[in-house]
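Dig into these lines:

——
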Amino acid sequence: MNNTDSPERGGKSSQDNTEEKDSAAVKAFDHSKTTKKPRPPKPSNAVTIAVSSRTLFNMVNERKVFEEDGLESYVAFQLEHEDQPLTPGVSFPFVKEEPRIDILINNAGVYQCPYTKSEDGFEMQFAVNHLGHFLLTNLLLDVLKRSAPSRIIVVSSKLYKHGEINFDDLNSEQHYDKAFAYARSKLANLLFTLELSQRLENTGVTVNALTPGIVRTNLGRHVHIPLLVKPLFNLASLAFFKSPEEGAQTSVYLACSDDVDGSQGKCFANCSEEHLLAKATDQEVAKKLWDISEVMVGITN
């Protein structure tokens, strides 16, 4: 398991601010996917940002960004979703350390990797992109409810349109197509959002999804691009892909904007509500996926 036992903390603690109530934002965020983070205006009240990183190197880089932005309180965790066992009580040990969480952004991801399995034996894209977020969110639900009004944001992809939920082969053992597996995991994100929204009625906690578009990150590190084509691809990405800052705008919008107060179970793109295909709004499939996901990660009610 590639994670540390204790988080790296920096800056002023919440106890140092006696006049304003602290809030905590937790991002299940794959930092290897961005080179520079969006920098929204500094909030007027004290905020603690908690971020997970794959490596200690990324944690150090994030610390520099936070300090440059003048962020007074932050928590950085080393957490490799690909190697983390999906087991309540073992996964995400930091969840017990935060007394208040106002915003949870589920944004960790892996894209079109070769067929591999997680430590628990699940197909990697389904494990990282869906099951990891499913478990983390469920582990944080109690504190999110105590912190209400609070928000959950799930980052999906327009590629969900090419995915299908095959309950007979969620582990892709019969057939593995890396593009289809990614699309399926992104469809699972939307179905998870749909079912969770039903379960959060009258709790003060909202959940919404988003599709960020094509962003210039190394999420596609598993995609082979011929050496001779790479210069042209890089030029095209500069011209047509979003920058990390642009790609993060809808996440920031859903986390911070008053425009989405009370919005529940919807999907957004470019800071506007997005129409979804019927496959992403099928409540029966969403409920079945939830039930199976509970069994896969070992959640019992």
